[in-house]
């Protein structure tokens, strides 16, 4: 017996949960007061101070709508949610973020409108305000029409997300890849954005021309994994970012269920029948799949073929520290490292401060010490070729002595953090690199991985400790292992005369940078 009602019930609940997740996740950011929303209010001339007062109200309304669709789905609120999703998506290009941001948010409006249309438009006010008990029975022809709608939504948001990498080179994408070490696989982090973006655009197009069970399953997994990068990079409200994308996971699940109706497998071992059909379709279309694999492979290889900057091995003559007293006895890609290190000059009321900074995986972002930038809004950044540029101080994490500066660096190569502290041991040799006029370098040995220090008047902070005190010009620069991977950001400890050197662990520094940069 073909009990299609069970399939329609599954579709109904999948969409209800997805729409609720979208609005509850989105509303949570309003309650939290997300700075990334300020440009959207500014489109209507609303000042930041007023916008911050309006955000919680907007957020609470979103959350209430999300709860409503779970407890009592109703056509009129669903229509509003679809239009609201379309409106908020359209605000992104209006605020200068580009059309790809709009396309990437297709699920924001496509999923609630899909649920509304599946339930059927009301014929009277009572039907628009009454509770939706179930969606009508779907015959194969009607399921096919809705299948095309959800294929279009999936395709648009995949192409939009891919476009953010290929055409916008969105920094937050790179932050996510860097949080799991993927940026270490390429010479330039932009290459990773390009490769992943092209792949997503290819998958989006494939959904349109070749819908299949396996492809829909892949999209669900892909979206869930890529959105979990918000968690790995320590973004504020990371889990709400994952929850807010509920529609992106639900659309391919609904497409799978619709395909089971189209193929007449609903209610009769549907999942197994779809899997068997999938295997048959794979055998029939092996040539198409091979061609797709070849195209994606060529795109990936082409994108990753960007030549790495020239590297050199640190020699005994080039490896002297700032005092000239020690030589490095390990290999370090010093030529590449020095291309990423900059000098930071900050003017303060009680005198100028000069320190070091270095380019990270996020384009245009330089990390340094908070005590160097202090309360300055702008600093001078001297890049390796001697060019002086004005940098904007985005923020500080004073408790970690981490400062973040945005600057037009002319495309300096980034330093990467590799596996973080996973491979670092007491007794390992490390290198502190600075740039203040002539580049300086000091070598040291790790003596502790979690030594408690106090930066300024802040609470105690676990830090890396080495056996060599650092020249003040090196502070704010990278502490590297012998492979040239960043393991810490060097800092100074007030009133310390132990002769030791200290660095903020890269895991803590990276999380601070992600918080400061946010969605800027």
Q: Could you explain the architecture of this structure?
A:
It is built from 19 helices and twelve strands. The chain has helices at 4-32, 38-42, 48-71, 75-94, 99-104, 106-119, 125-129, 140-166, 171-179, 189-209, 213-227, 229-232, 238-244, 246-262, 270-284, 286-304, 334-338, 370-373, 506-517; strands at 341-348, 351-359, 365-368, 378-382, 388-397, 402-406, 429-435, 439-453, 461-466, 478-480, 486-491, 501-505. The chain has a six-stranded antiparallel β-barrel. A hairpin with a 3-residue loop joins strand 7 and strand 8. The protein is elongated and about 80 Å long. The relative contact order is 0.10. It holds the Pfam family Trypsin_2.
Question: How are the SSEs placed, and which strands pair?
Answer:
Layout lengths: L3 H29 L5 H5 L5 H24 L3 H20 L4 H6 L1 H14 L5 H5 L10 H27 L4 H9 L9 H21 L3 H15 L1 H4 L5 H7 L1 H17 L7 H15 L1 H19 L29 H5 L2 E8 L2 E9 L5 E4 L1 H4 L4 E5 L5 E10 L4 E5 L22 E7 L3 E15 L7 E6 L11 E3 L5 E6 L9 E5 H12 L3
Antiparallel strand pairs: 1-2, 1-4, 2-3, 3-6, 4-5, 5-6, 7-8, 7-10, 8-9, 9-12, 10-11, 11-12
Keywords: Hydrolase, Membrane, Protease, Transmembrane, Transmembrane helix
Organism: Lentzea pudingi
Pfam families: Trypsin_2
């Amino acid at each position: 017996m073909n009990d299609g009602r069970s399939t329609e019930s599954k579709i109904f609940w999948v969409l209800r949960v997805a729409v609720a997740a979208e609005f509850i996740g989105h509303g949570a950011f309003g309650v939290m007061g997300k700075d990334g929303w300020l440009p959207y209010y500014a489109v209507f001339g609303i000042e930041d101070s007023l916008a911050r007062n309006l955000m919680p109200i907007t957020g609470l309304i979103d959350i209430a709508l999300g709860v409503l669709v779970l407890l009592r789905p109703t056509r009129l609120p669903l229509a509003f949610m679809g239009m609201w999703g379309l409106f908020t998506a359209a605000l992104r290009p209006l605020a200068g973020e580009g059309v790809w941001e709009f396309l990437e948010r297709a699920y924001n409006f496509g999923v609630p409108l899909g649920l509304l249309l599946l339930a059927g438009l009301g014929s009277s006010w009572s039907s628009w305000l009454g509770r939706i008990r179930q969606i009508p029975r779907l015959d194969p022809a009607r399921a096919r029409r809705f299948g095309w709608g959800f294929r279009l939504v999936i395709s648009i948001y995949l192409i939009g997300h891919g476009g953010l990498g290929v055409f916008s080179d969105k920094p937050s994408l790179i932050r996510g890849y860097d949080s799991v070490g993927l940026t270490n696989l390429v010479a330039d982090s932009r290459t990773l954005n390009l490769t992943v973006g092209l792949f997503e655009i290819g998958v989006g197009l494939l959904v349109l021309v070749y819908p299949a069970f396996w492809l829909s399953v892949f999209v669900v997994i892909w979206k869930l994994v890529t959105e979990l990068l918000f968690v790995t990079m320590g973004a504020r409200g990371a889990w709400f970012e994952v929850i807010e994308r509920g529609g992106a996971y639900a659309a391919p699940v609904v497409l799978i269920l619709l395909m089971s109706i189209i193929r007449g497998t609903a209610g009769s071992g549907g999942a197994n029948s779809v899997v068997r059909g999938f295997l048959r379709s794979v055998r029939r279309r092996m040539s198409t799949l091979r061609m797709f694999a070849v195209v994606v492979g060529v795109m990936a290889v082409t994108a990753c073929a960007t030549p790495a900057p020239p590297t050199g091995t640190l020699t005994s003559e080039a490896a002297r520290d700032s005092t000239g007293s020690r030589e490095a006895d390990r290999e370090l890609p010093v030529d590449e490292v020095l291309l990423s290190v900059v000098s930071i000059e900050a003017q303060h009321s009680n005198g100028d401060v000069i320190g070091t900074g270095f380019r990270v995986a996020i384009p245009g972002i330089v990390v340094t010490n908070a005590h160097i930038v202090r309360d300055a809004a702008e600093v001078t950044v001297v890049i390796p070729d001697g060019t002086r540029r004005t940098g904007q101080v985005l923020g500080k994490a004073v408790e970690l002595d981490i400062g973040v500066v945005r600057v037009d660096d002319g495309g300096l190569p980034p330093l990467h953090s590799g596996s973080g502290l996973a491979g670092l041991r007491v007794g390992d040799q490390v290198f502190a690199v600075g740039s203040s006029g002539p580049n300086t370098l000091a070598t040291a040995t790790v003596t502790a991985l979690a030594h408690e220090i106090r930066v300024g008047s802040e609470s105690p902070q676990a830090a890396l400790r080495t056996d060599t005190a650092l020249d003040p010009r090196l502070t704010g620069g990278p502490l590297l292992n012998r492979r040239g991977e960043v393991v810490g950001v060097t800092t100074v400890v007030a009133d310390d005369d132990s002769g030791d050197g200290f660095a903020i662990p890269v895991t803590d520094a990276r999380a601070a940078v992600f918080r400061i940069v946010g969605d800027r």
